[in-house]
């Protein structure tokens, strides 16, 4: 089940895109093997551990599982910090808790600061240049690091810290030295970690409450929904304000809700694509939730005009697959459906207008014209009629200035004639690309 879906999602990703896959203990090893094969081991970013529950389950047979994993891969990972290409993770915004750690007990004109350890985890044998005495300013006694640690700065750097008043000896002035780190000198954000507690990213219970509040439907009780806060953390790390988010297992629609909340928070224009294969979930949960989320966000204190462009969303149903289990064109597929598929897989662009079936010409892209001989488009409704490229049909194709690509069930013309006519022939169904 996983392999073909992951392979298809890899194709959808932009070169600077990333994929976050939620998985439990049972399947995480298999998932990593699949992801390594499709994305390449070098594009592995991290495995996040998310605390999905608050309390252990007393009815657990063995150990009560309290976490899930979120496996992260990039389409193309950065080789190093200076690599201009590849996926670029964002920093998490600094929150009130982090900012509250800064104060200014000595009224330093540079503003609030916090103190950090003045030593590092090396021994004197490993870094002898960092093992030296510091003179205490009050007692004038020598202060040494322990034998299992050394100072974080060489002598010259330490002297500079002294001159810059960056060493703190505690409120009493009698403590061991610590380094003053000023809030106005730190980065605006925090480097994300792989340990996500429920306080940081919510849990399943929070997600259930969100769903029940929006839909007021106890009967539609998901066992393991994802909270909006969890998905928003992913967005903070992996998206910008113009990103397109795709969730191939939409479920209760948390991803759409999180996109709307993220746009509400920063005025972004993120868009979402959701896929849900279960009709009762899609109709009974996903769609109503998205509608409610749009309604709630539009009524909030968002920036003026933010949601004027959100007229709603398009709800689409999948029709029959193009190919049946034998690799043949499905009997229910019509000319317009196959034409749209052929044009997109050939050009990477949507068909200019829906094919009517009244002409084999289906569209033009970059000077090349595309034709489809299928389903009796030329008026011959017999199963084997009108779908073979003959000299007569070639002469009667709608004209096009430039190269032509013709799809059909067969071709009666030689390579020389096709070359003179500027035609490339591709056989249906064998030369129709799947994706």
The strand count comes to 21
Percent strand: 15-25%
Largest sheet: 4 strands, mixed
Mean pLDDT: 87
Any idea what the radius of gyration is? 31 Å
- The rounded distance between the terminal residues' Cα atoms is 18 Å
Structural notes for this entry:
There is one protein chain. By secondary structure, the protein is of the alpha/beta class. It has 4 domains: 1-88, no CATH class; 96-185, no CATH class; 200-318, no CATH class; 335-427, no CATH class. The protein has 12 helices and 21 strands. It has helices spanning 2-12, 28-39, 96-99, 155-163, 198-201, 204-215, 228-238, 254-266, 279-298, 335-347, 391-396, 415-420; strands at 18-23, 44-51, 67-74, 92-93, 113-117, 119-120, 134-135, 142-143, 150-151, 167-168, 178-182, 189-190, 195-196, 244-247, 271-274, 361-365, 368-372, 388-389, 404-408, 410-411, 423-427. The strands form 8 sheets. The protein has a 4-stranded mixed sheet with strand order 1-3-2-13. Strands 16-17-19-21 form a 4-stranded mixed sheet. The longest helix has 20 residues, at 279-298.
Structural key phrases:
four-stranded mixed beta sheet; alpha/beta; elongated; 12 helices; 4 domains; single chain; 435 residues
Write the layout of secondary structure elements.
Layout: H1 2-12, E1 18-23, H2 28-39, E2 44-51, E3 67-74, E4 92-93, H3 96-99, E5 113-117, E6 119-120, E7 134-135, E8 142-143, E9 150-151, H4 155-163, E10 167-168, E11 178-182, E12 189-190, E13 195-196, H5 198-201, H6 204-215, H7 228-238, E14 244-247, H8 254-266, E15 271-274, H9 279-298, H10 335-347, E16 361-365, E17 368-372, E18 388-389, H11 391-396, E19 404-408, E20 410-411, H12 415-420, E21 423-427
Helix pairs in contact: 1-2, 7-8, 8-9
